[in-house]
Amino acid sequence: MDVKGKAAVVTGGASGLGAATARALAERGAKVAIFDLQTEKGEAVAKEIGGVFCEVNVTSDESVDAGFAKAREAHGQESVLVCCAGTGNAMKTASRSKEDGSIKHFALEAFNWLIQINLVGTFRCVAKSAAGMLTLDPGEDGARGAIVMTASVAAEDGQIGQAAYSASKGGVVGMTLPIARDLMNEGIRVNTILPGIFDTPLMQGAPQQVKDALAASVPFPKRLGKPEEYARLALAMVENDYFNGEDVRLDGAIRMAPR
């Protein structure tokens, strides 16, 4: 797919992986809409790339519908969707306090909250975007659009305390091929990236010694991933018309230890 002149939507596009992807798409000539809850940052990135910012909560049907309506009014029906919106938390499934021996378990509200954002929120945006793409006239080989979702290496080697996070990201991996098959006769491709340890705003707040230790754990190159590297792979998935139904790790060959 040549994205020049095409409309694209990037969820979580105000910072990190999403912002890098929004910039990369705009550099290729795409008309980009950013979905995010970070209004100030999102508007700044949208202004920088000549795009449009839509304040969107991916856990809300009404919010997502309003975001797509605004984006399509500005740019027309999107042919590209990249889902980067997501978050994380960490808590053992059940644990014993070292101080007083009291026992607690992972709060189900917190588990559900993460699933709603990372998994259900991703599917909500994918389903609504795909329905819109079905209205487009088919191009070469019947192509109408391309979708990229974001999982994590935690989908395959989650660490201690990551039961909810790994479940949410494993769900994204698990639905990649079925969605690609659902949409195969409509010319819409679906792929997923599993990033490793990336230098995102969340990571930038960590102490330097923590970041150095994480970087040293990567086989090669021994550093954190750059958001621009994620963006390049997302673009490859969009632009290569034979790239479909795949889950690809982008992690410097790391395999996460238990902790």
Give the helix tally.
Answer: 9
Low-confidence stretches: none
Number of domains as seen in the coordinates = 1
Quote the distance from N terminus to C terminus: 41 Å
- Major sheet: 7 strands, parallel
Beta-strand content: 15-25%
Q: Could you tell me the number of beta strands?
A: 9
* Helix proportion: 40-55%
Q: In order across it, which strands form the biggest sheet?
A: 3-2-1-4-7-8-9
By helix and strand content, what is the structural category?
alpha/beta
SSE order, one letter for each helix or strand: EHEHEHEEEHEHHEHHHE
In CATH terms, what is the fold-level topology?
Rossmann fold
CATH homologous superfamily annotation: NAD(P)-binding Rossmann-like Domain
Rg for CA atoms: 18 Å
Concise structural overview:
Belongs to the short-chain dehydrogenases/reductases (SDR) family. With 259 residues, the protein is α/β, with parallel strands linked by helices.
Structure description:
This is SDR family oxidoreductase. Pfam families: adh_short (PF00106). It comes from Stakelama marina. It is globular and about 65 Å long. The mean pLDDT is 96. Helix 3 runs parallel beside helix 4 (108-133). A 7-stranded parallel beta sheet has the order 3-2-1-4-7-8-9, with helices on both faces. A two-stranded antiparallel sheet has the order 5-6. It has helices spanning 16-27, 39-49, 61-75, 108-133, 154-157, 163-182, 201-204, 208-216, 227-239; strands at residues 7-11, 31-36, 52-55, 80-83, 94-96, 103-105, 145-150, 188-195, 247-250. The protein starts with 6 loop residues before the first strand and ends in a 9-residue tail after the last strand. 44% of the residues lie in helices and 17% in strands. The protein contains 9 helices and 9 strands. Helix 2 links the parallel strand 2 and strand 3 (52-55).
